[in-house]
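Assess this one:
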Amino acid sequence: MQLNFNRKEYERKFLQPGGYVGKIVATGIEGETVKVFFDIAQGEFKDIYLKEYQQAGGEKTFDSTKWNKKAVVNFNFQYTGAKYAFADLLNYLEESNQTFKWNNDTNDLKNHLVGVVYKKNVYIDKFGDEKEGTDFPSFTTVKSIAEHKYSIEPTKQSKEPATSMEKPNLPTDLVPDDIQF
């Protein structure tokens, strides 16, 4: 049976761990979380997430539910660390875009370039085999990407638990009055 199928149209390219120049395509605020949606702006993977979005039925009016989760960075302002990370993003944007100055409006972030780093993610699959993939992104400056001043190595995680729950290292002669508040 004859089948007209353009295989090239459906071949998938997977983003590899590395540094990329990204472009912010949309932002959103949900509760205390600022969401920053971006795409790859240059190179072999240019517009990779836009193409996936369109294949998923995304329209001109941005629909965040159709955007790839690996191209979103969430800043949950409920946590102080997220506020520091968002301040870093603003610094990266100002350093990477001469005309950008933060004006307390997330819509101003759109269409600006920023460096995006995808680290390696080493994990154990459901069959117990160690695999390597791409972790969620972090931001940096475009200059850091151009000068290859970033690391893609995964954060080392110990395979041993930090403490054993069977034998905790607690003093045996501790009484409630010994605890200082």
Summary: The first strand starts at residue 18 and ends at 30.
